[in-house]
Amino acid sequence: MRSVRAAVLAFAASILLVGFASPCLACSCVQQTDQQHYQRAAVVFVGKAIERHDPSEGDYQSSADPIHWTFDVESTQKGTTTRKQIVSSSRDEASCGFTFEIGKRYQVFASKTNGELRTSLCDGTREVNGGQGPYYPPAPSTPPPATPSPAPTVAPTPVPTPTASPTPTPSPTASLSPLPSVEPLEPVAGQSPGVAVIATVLALVALGLAVGLTFQSRRA
Questions:
Q1: What is the pLDDT of residues 113-128, one digit of tens each?
Q2: Could you give the CA distance from residue 205 to residue 201 in angstroms, rounded to a whole number?
Q3: How far apart are the C-alpha atoms of 183 and 21, rounded to whole Å?
Q4: Neighbours of 107 (CB within 10 A)
């Protein structure tokens, strides 16, 4: 009876140990976007897995031992790759190792250590198929072209319009000869003053007619 009880307790203890040990060996990754994986990676490429190489020797193997995978590179999104690129990853998923399948296409996000590329379950590496294509970073946005400021408008200089200078009109009196002075007639002895006045008036009228005729002849 005691042996059966001991066996049951041992089996229960083993179950508990396995239950507590599994989470410790499981890979835990921080959730990140494709853009964050791209920014953190040293090299990103798309290629087909064509070869698996296990460099470990001996009977003892650790889940963290590296497995070397060779890819036939189709395109490189970041960094520099060779035509046949080797990438290593841990042997087991418990150590975050990524297990590739020969003949399938993958987009590999890899870090670089001592010149060697390495990837894991936490780096964003994934299979590329018809449902999920490779990730490409967004193209950088270009600022809109600057709008040139309009050139200042220069008002045309007004051209002065030539104006004809007025032709001076000669004054009608400018070229007239000076009028002869008329001396008042003195009364002749034995003549009455009325006759003298009439003679003076007639002389003035004759002088006015002479002036008028002279002015008309000048204008003609």
A1: 999 999 999 999 999 9
A2: 6
A3: 161
A4: 24
pLDDT digits (tens, 9 = 90+) for 41-79: 999 999 999 999 998 876 677 888 999 999 999 999 999
Q: What is the pTM of this model?
A: 0.54
Are 85 and 71 in contact by the 8 Å Cβ rule? The answer is: yes
Beta bridge partners of 51: 70
In the chain, beta strands by DSSP E: 43-53, 66-78, 84-90, 105-113, 116-118, 126-127
Both tokens of 56, joined, read: 């470990």
pLDDT value at residue 171:
53
**Length of the chain, in residues:** 220
Residue 103 pLDDT class (50, 70, 90 cuts): very high
CB-CB contact of 181 with 207 (8 Å): no
Q: Is 49 exposed, middle or buried (0-12, 13-18, 19+ CB in 10 A)?
A: buried
Instruction: Provide the token pair at 121.
Output: 């379950």
DSSP for 2-58? HHHHHHHHHHHHHHHHHHHHHHHHS-------HHHHHHH-SEEEEEEEEEEE----S
